[in-house]
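Q: What structure does this chain adopt?
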Amino acid sequence: MKTILMTGAAGGIGTFLRAELKGTYTLRLTDRAPITDLGDGESFTQVDITDFEAMRDLAQGVDGILHFGGCAGESDWQTILDANIVGMRNIYEAALQAGVKRVVWASSNHAVGFYRRGETIDHTVYPKPDSRYGVSKVFGEAMGSLYAEKYGLEVVNLRIGNVATEPVDKRRLSIWISPRDLAQLCGIALDHPDIKFEIFYGISDNARGWYDNSNAASFGYKPRDRSEDYAEAVLAKEPPAAADDPDEIYQGGAFVSTEQGGGRPRSEVV
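A:
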């Protein structure tokens, strides 16, 4: 059984994946927050991904890395810089120095959030980040490309939409992924023999989706869950939005108008 290092294991996505991947891999978990409910095949070390030496030590002897740690939304620049820029570099450099070939990590739909909702985009489009958080995800994809091309690492960037047991609003009907579909994607990303550098969209079978996920399908991804099964209930409780609201125009939603630190957009600050 492969041993996989998972960062961000105490977070929402990490918690979902621990349950889904149990028994498939031996999981070496890490997070800056504590984990006390370890199961069979799990171990845990509490560290921050900004600590390079600690990450390098944890990467020793693993077969792959699932990197889900870092800042999970728009924030002040220093937080993003430390967690998503320095932390991302640390993951790739730790993998390189520890001899780990495969890195799979949580990029985001916010790397391409300034595409309009009427557009269908695939893995080849150029980035249009909707926030500084989105910029950090573009950086992570670029860093992965460098380590793949220059050092031979095998990298999968998962442009994740929204991971939850079910979609809860109209936007999420387009970007939702169930925990078991994400686990399937992670399994393909960790185990497929022909990975070099790939971008997969982390979405389920969403009839209202904006992403052409044929690249993931070419590696065998077959989502089991459909957001449309929840559409009637979701749309019945969501009030209509103004047609000229930028949050409704762009795929990134509220991220396109949220200023760093979570405040109002600069155009509204007087």
